[in-house]
């Protein structure tokens, strides 16, 4: 059910949930200060209750409403990348809902770079928790139609067009003493983060029980995540993909393929999605391509992996969670 901006604001203020556009993926939003509204997110997504949620705020000045400290490193990152596809995990104010935090001592914050999302947060004077608007472990939505296909027509959806980043935000945790750590790769690369966070070292990959030293583990990062319904096979090179397609053909199984980069000399008799050799473009089109492949109702999906280079890491991360080799 499509709703207007005013209807979305009213629904959220009333304790309802609304799927909202962001530049990364559509989020299933609820008022981040309303526990009963927040619980609806978990029910609808069928998501385990211990998974923390990202709080979307309209302005960097609101960080102090949620976090007990905003270390210099985090301020620099926010200045460089907000509004944008960066989530900062900071030590939480004690009054921040445990439903949002998933019982962690930290809270995840982001100012999204989408005009409709920003209008909702600012005009509605709202902060909304919003995980991706899909069922737990299914493909993330990058259009209003994807949300409806995954969650049903009764979900209110604020349509803001297709998402132009296309994969979920980069998540960086910053502890009170300024150590930072990448928790989830995204289109803002670790190199870009390191360049801005100059003077501080990356926290070692350890867990601390001291809240002031919190270097959070990564709750909710499941190995099997972001998957289409059709079994998806990943290939490091095109030759092995072509060999597998011949084997499937011989077995009488149907398949569709997704290639990255030029498709010259590939003559496979099957439906093909050809993505350009550009990390930004592949990220933007990744989930919608996987949704389209899934809708082809074939026996197998065969996907060519991009090269293992820094600029492809976020796409490689999402693909490796969607399929198997
Ligand atoms: O791009 C995005 O980030 C999208 C859009 C809608 O903003 N949202 C999104 O939310 O991807 P979700 O729920 O799919 O991912 C939230 C993830 C959690 O699974 C967890 O890994 C991390 O964010 N997270 C949230 N709060 C955290 C916390 N306090 N400590 C550590 N990780 C946290
Ligand atoms: Mg998700």
Written account of the structure:
By secondary structure, the protein is an alpha/beta fold. The chain has two domains: 5-213, DHBP synthase, CATH 3.90.870.10; 232-322, 3-Layer(aba) Sandwich (Rossmann fold), CATH 3.40.50. The chain has eleven helices and twelve strands. The radius of gyration is 20 Å and the shape is globular. Bound molecules: threonylcarbamoyladenylate (TXA) and magnesium ion. Magnesium ion (MG) binds next to loops. Belongs to the SUA5 family. One of its GO terms (cellular component) is cytoplasm. Its EC number is 2.7.7.87.
Q: Can you give keywords for this protein?
A:
Rossmann fold, ATP-binding, nucleotide-binding, globular, alpha/beta, Threonylcarbamoyl-AMP synthase, Sua5-like_dom, 11 helices, binds threonylcarbamoyladenylate, binds magnesium ion, 325 residues, 12 strands, four-stranded parallel sheet, DHBP synthase, EC 2.7.7.87
Helices and strands, with pairings:
Layout: H1 5-13, E1 18-20, E2 27-31, H2 35-45, E3 54-56, H3 63-66, H4 72-81, E4 86-91, H5 98-101, E5 106-110, H6 115-123, E6 128-129, H7 144-151, E7 170-174, E8 180-184, H8 190-196, E9 232-235, H9 238-250, E10 255-260, E11 271-275, H10 279-295, E12 300-304, H11 313-322
Parallel strand pairs: 3-5, 4-7, 9-12, 10-11, 10-12
Antiparallel strand pairs: 1-2, 2-6, 3-6, 4-5, 7-8
Helix pairs in contact: 1-6
The chain binds threonylcarbamoyladenylate (TXA) and magnesium ion.
């Amino acid at each position: 059910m499509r709703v207007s901006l005013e209807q979305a604001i009213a629904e959220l203020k009333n304790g309802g949930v609304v799927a909202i556009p962001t530049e990364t993926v559509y989020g299933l939003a609820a008022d981040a200060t309303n526990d009963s509204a927040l619980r609806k997110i978990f029910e609808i997504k069928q998501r385990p209750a211990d998974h923390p949620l990202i709080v979307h705020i309209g302005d960097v000045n609101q960080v102090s409403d949620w976090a007990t400290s905003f270390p210099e490193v985090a301020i620099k990152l926010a200045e460089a990348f907000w509004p944008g596809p960066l989530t900062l995990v900071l030590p939480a104010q004690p009054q921040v809902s445990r439903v949002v935090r998933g019982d962690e001592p930290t809270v995840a914050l982001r100012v999204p770079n989408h005009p409709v999302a920003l209008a909702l947060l600012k005009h509605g004077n709202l902060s909304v928790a919003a995980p991706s608007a899909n069922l737990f472990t299914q493909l993330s939505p990058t259009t209003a139609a994807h949300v409806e296909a995954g969650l049903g027509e009764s979900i209110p959806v604020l349509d803001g067009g297709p998402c132009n980043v296309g994969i979920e935000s980069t998540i960086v945790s910053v502890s009170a003493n300024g150590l930072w750590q990448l928790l989830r790769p995204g289109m803002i690369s670790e190199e870009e983060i390191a360049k801005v966070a100059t003077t501080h070292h990356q926290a070692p990959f350890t867990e601390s029980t001291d809240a002031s030293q919190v270097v959070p583990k990564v709750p909710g990062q499941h190995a099997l995540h972001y998957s289409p319904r059709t079994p998806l096979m990943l290939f490091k090179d095109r030759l092995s993909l072509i060999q597998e397609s011949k084997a499937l053909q011989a077995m009488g199984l149907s398949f569709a393929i997704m290639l990255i980069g030029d498709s010259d000399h590939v003559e496979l008799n099957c439906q093909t999605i050809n993505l350009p050799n550009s990390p930004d473009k592949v990220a933007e089109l990744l989930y919608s391509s996987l949704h389209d492949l899934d809708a082809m109702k074939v026996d197998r999906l065969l996907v060519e992996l991009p090269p293992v280079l820094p600029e492809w890491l976020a796409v490689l991360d999402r693909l490796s969670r969607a399929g198997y080799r």
